[in-house]
Amino acid sequence: MKCYEEVKCPKCSGNKIMKAGRSNKGVQRYYCKNTECEMNTFMLSYKNKAYEIGIKKKILDMAINGGGIRDTARVLGINRNTVMSTIKKSQSDCKGES
Ligand SMILES: [Zn+2]
Asked: What Cα–Cα distance (Å) separates residue 25 from each residue in 20, 39, 42, 45, 86?
């Protein structure tokens, strides 16, 4: 089972990727742990992805704070099904994200 969405190195396509903080624009940075790979840090440049991750975090924050599915959907302006599937997905993910 995968804990997180798989991030691959754009250079070697390796999946031994570590998080490396965020850029000044708040974009998650990663680095490749493959010692044979010249890639250092890289960012996923998909804007939609960043948006999705941001929304997901908000959904979970609200859900954890007892916002409820309906209110969460209303406040964030998204579909209730999206809220539900996000929560469900996160519950089946590995626990212990720092
Ligand atoms: Zn690499």
From this structure: 14, 21, 14, 12, 25
Which pLDDT belongs to residue 32?
92
Which pair of tokens denotes residue 57?
């975090």
7: CB partners within 8 A, 6+ apart: 15, 17, 30, 44
Ligand 1 centroid from CA 64, angstroms: 35
User: From the CA of 80, how far away is ligand 1's center (Å)?
Assistant: 38
Supply the pTM of this predicted model.
0.43
In angstroms, what is the span from residue 9 Cα to ligand 1's centroid? Answer: 5
